[in-house]
């Protein structure tokens, strides 16, 4: 799993010979009806908008991240339809990499929760099973390609832990929702780890907004 920042909206507006930050642009757009639109002080404004759920202003700025994960997790990410995505295509490129999952016990009271308390022998069995399936899948996948079978067909032989890469672009508003939902304990751990990495990036890029939301990099 890997997450990294790709892009953030780059404002062109300057006030007092100072280029606006992305959060400054959010405030600038929020003050569209105000005679004080060029006010560079916006901490209280953004906090007020969050407190009173004036979310539309947070759609004025976008952020794009790159996510490397497994095909088991990428469909969960793609469910967030307010985002725009580009994903690695197994139809056009050969697959080479795989993710490894550390097993957890199914919670008998919550189908969306797992518990990290399996014994060492069970963990070892699951790790070995993943490797056996990966090795067999890769062998048959490569054989299929050598026989001239199209990549779009050969990929049917690949397991869900096949690695994929996505670019995910959305507004600050969408990222706030995504982070709140996917850092919750009900999210699968592998996806939650991604969301926590995204939150750390968000905190760095939008510190005023993150502070108003009560987020900090240490809050994992």
Question: What does this molecule look like?
Answer:
The protein has 220 residues and is α+β, with helices and mostly antiparallel strands. The chain contains eight helices and eight strands, in the order E-E-E-H-H-E-H-E-E-E-H-H-E-H-H-H. The strands form three sheets. A four-stranded antiparallel beta sheet has the order 1-4-8-5. Strands 2-3 form a two-stranded antiparallel sheet. Strand 2 and strand 3 form a beta hairpin. The chain starts with a strand and ends in a 7-residue tail after the last helix. Its EC number is 2.1.1.148.
Write the CATH architecture name of the largest domain: 2-Layer Sandwich
Count of β-strands: 8
Number of domains: 2
The first-level CATH class name of the largest domain: Alpha Beta
Q: Low-confidence runs (pLDDT<50, min 5 residues)?
A: none
The helix-strand sequence is EEEHHEHEEEHHEHHH
Terminal Cα span = 17 Å
Helix percentage range: 40-55%
Sheet with most strands: strand arrangement: 1-4-8-5
Largest sheet: 4 strands, antiparallel
| Helix/strand class | alpha+beta
Assess the beta-strand content as a share of residues: 15-25%
Mean pLDDT, all residues: 96
Number of helix segments?
8
> What do we call the CATH topology of the largest domain?
Gyrase A, domain 2
Q: Roughly how many Å is the radius of gyration?
A: 22 Å
What general form does the structure show? elongated
Keywords: Methyltransferase, Transferase
Pfam families: Thy1
EC number: 2.1.1.148
GO molecular function, one term: NADPH binding
